[in-house]
C-alpha cells in the first residue's frame, strides 16, 4: 500500500469517526471558532484552495495537498471536496507519521 493510500485510509477513518469538517462553508465557520492540527486542500482547488493555504500559514496549520478535488471527495464520501479539516490530533499525528515516512523513502 502506498503512502497516499494509507493517508486516504486514515482520513476516511477520521471522517467515519466524525473527526473531520468537510466543505468550504463548514470549514470556514469551524476555523473562526476552533484550532485544527491538519488541513487537507485539493491540489486543483483554485482560489478556494489558496484562501485556505493563507489561513493555514497564518495559524501554523499543517497542509496536505496530495489529492485532487475528486480524490479528496471520494476519500470522505462525497463527489468533490476542496477542503477537509482534520479536528483530531491523534489522526493528525498518524497522518504526519506516514508523510514523514514517505519523505524518508523519497530521499533514499
How would you summarize what this structure contains?
The chain has about 110 residues and is of the alpha+beta class. It has a single domain (about 5-105), classed as Ribosomal protein L30/S12 (60s Ribosomal Protein L30, Chain: A, 2-Layer Sandwich), CATH 3.30.1330.
Write a structural description.
The protein is of the alpha+beta class and 108 residues long. The chain has a single domain (3-103), classed as 60s Ribosomal Protein L30, Chain: A. Helix content is 58%, strand content 13%. It has five helices and four strands. The protein has helices at 3-16, 24-33, 47-59, 69-75, 89-107, and strands spanning 20-22, 38-41, 62-64, 83-86. A four-stranded mixed β-sheet has the order 1-4-2-3, sandwiched between helices. Strand 2, helix 3 (47-59) and strand 3 (62-64) form a beta-alpha-beta unit. It is globular. The two termini are 18 Å apart. The mean pLDDT is 91. Keywords: Ribonucleoprotein, Ribosomal protein. This is 50S ribosomal protein L7ae.
- What is the top-level CATH class? Alpha Beta
- Beta-sheet strand percentage? 5-15%
Largest sheet: 4 strands, mixed
CATH superfamily: Ribosomal protein L30/S12
Protein name: 50S ribosomal protein L7ae
Keywords: Ribonucleoprotein, Ribosomal protein
GO cellular component, one term: ribosome
Organism: Megasphaera hexanoica
What is the topological layout?
Blueprint: H1 3-16, E1 20-22, H2 24-33, E2 38-41, H3 47-59, E3 62-64, H4 69-75, E4 83-86, H5 89-107
Parallel strand pairs: 2-3
Antiparallel strand pairs: 1-4, 2-4
Helix pairs in contact: 1-5
